[in-house]
Amino acid sequence: AVGVDNTFRKKFDKEEYLQRAREREQQVELGYGQTTISSKGPPVQRKPLKHRDYEVDLESRLGKTQAGYYCLVCECVVKDSANYLDHINGKKHQRALGMSMRVERASLQQKGEVIFCSLAAGFNERILEQQQEEEEWRCQHRERKKEREEG
Q1: Contact between residue 73 and residue 96 where contact means Cβ atoms under 8 Å apart
Q2: Rounded to whole angstroms, how far apart are CA atoms 118 and 112?
Q3: What is the pLDDT of residues 119-136, one digit of tens each?
Q4: Could you give the 3-state DSSP secondary structure of residue 124?
Q5: Phi and psi based region of residue 33 (left: phi greater than 0; alpha: psi -120 to 50; beta: remaining)
Q6: Among candidates 92, 91, 111, which has minimal Cα distance to 101?
Q7: Which GO terms fall under molecular function for this chain's record (predicted)?
Q8: How many CB atoms lie within 10 A of CB 62?
Q9: Please, which residues have CB within 8 angstroms of residue 46's CB and are 6 or more apart in sequence?
């Protein structure tokens, strides 16, 4: 069986593939076909995560039969309150709000302000507690003194 091709291997026509590559290059130059990643434009800038400035009201629906919680931003229904909280804190919802999942780095000054405020609040609380203890001690002292004078 002379001349029978029994190798079952694909034969590549180099000229055909070179022609296809040239056509692809021409289409890209003309603006057709696939574009490269760099030509998509700048990436979308999203704001960093921030604290919620509103209270999530889950208690008003306690004990009531309902279809679930509806998210107006994402237009989806979530089965229960736990899943709703997971949704509003999740990546899909935050992206729909225009936020990335990254947190803004605090500057040294901001960290100092937070530490100072927490120390000041703690200091004020301790002063108030100490004043209350002193007031209680004075009241007890007065009562003991009256008891001694009467008895």
Answers
A1: yes
A2: 10
A3: 887 888 889 999 999 999
A4: helix
A5: left
A6: 91
A7: nucleic acid binding; zinc ion binding
A8: 7
A9: 95, 98, 99, 100
Identify the residue whose tokens are 């709703």. Answer: 84
Q: Per DSSP, what are the bridge partners of residue 103?
A: 49
The first and second tokens of residue 90, run together, are 């999740």
CB 113 within 8 A of CB 123: no
For residues 73 and 88, give the distance between their C-alpha atoms in angstroms, rounded to a whole number. 10
Residue 135 corresponds to which amino acid? Answer: E
pLDDT in tens, 4-40: 767 777 777 889 999 999 998 888 777 665 555 555 6
Q: What pTM did the predictor assign? A: 0.44
Asked if 58 contacts 84 with a C-beta cutoff of 8 angstroms, the reply is yes
Pull the structure tokens for residue 135.
Answer: 């007031």
Would residue 131 be called left, alpha or beta, if left means φ above 0 and alpha means ψ between -120 and 50 degrees?
A: alpha
Distance CA 38, CA 135 (A): 72
